[in-house]
Write a structure and sequence with these properties.
The chain is of the alpha+beta class. The protein is built from 10 helices and 4 strands; from the N terminus they run αααααααββαβαβα. A hairpin with a 6-residue loop joins β1 and β2.
Amino acid sequence: MTDKVDMDIADSKAVPNILNPPSKVIGNALSDLLNIAFGYLLHEKSEEKRLKSQKHIEELSKKLNENVSSIPEEHRIPPKKSIVGPALEATKYYFEEDEIREMFENLITNSMDNRQSAKVHPSFTEIIKQMSPLDAQNLKLFEHKAQLPIVQFKAKSRDDINKYILVATNVFISNTDCQDIDLQAVSISSLCRIGLLEIRYGEYLTDNSIYEPFLSLPIYNDTKNQLDLLNIASDKFPEITNKEKYYLHYEKGVVQLTPLGNTFISVCLNPLPNKKPNP
């Protein structure tokens, strides 16, 4: 029993009070939650792991202290355990993934700001856990734009308007930091699956020039050239080839935030109300 008490005391000392001094009540409550979530990490048998954990915890504590201290005292409220507890628990798996960790930090901070707390939904922790750094980058693109272009490529029969072969879907190129269309298709599909985005083909942006970059993609030009060669072969050797001919069609669409996605961005991705965005 004594060992357990000593360990708790050691944890309390090791994890700094992250609110010093704006509000001691709020500071103690959040510090207690930090102890519950991370205290055991400070007792790793490996010294290397222990020191690494301590460094991560101190960095997180410092960042949360800065964030919460930036909330005017009249708007600061105690942390809600049902939001902050699970968020802190999840954060320990993402210390080295900046985009994900920062979303947890914003979620925790905004849950303690009465101007934002009503927007904080209990599902946000689970949503963040299902996101990759690329998902976070893509979602942030919608911070200032309601809709972004997306397309899918189809090889359509010249003889049967209802017959086609899907070449590629959810082709998204608005993120200039990642132009791998396969990775982007997975990211956009996942963001739709968790309810933050929705895709609408058939609806499209009126400025057609926005879609022109899609026609310069290798997958578009390579597929188009292959279909042209197959069509030529079909004309020359009808007895040994399928006579059916195809052409490459691109279907324009838009990808946009859902109501859930819009609220999620305002809570977990946007700069905090009292902090200026990084230049």
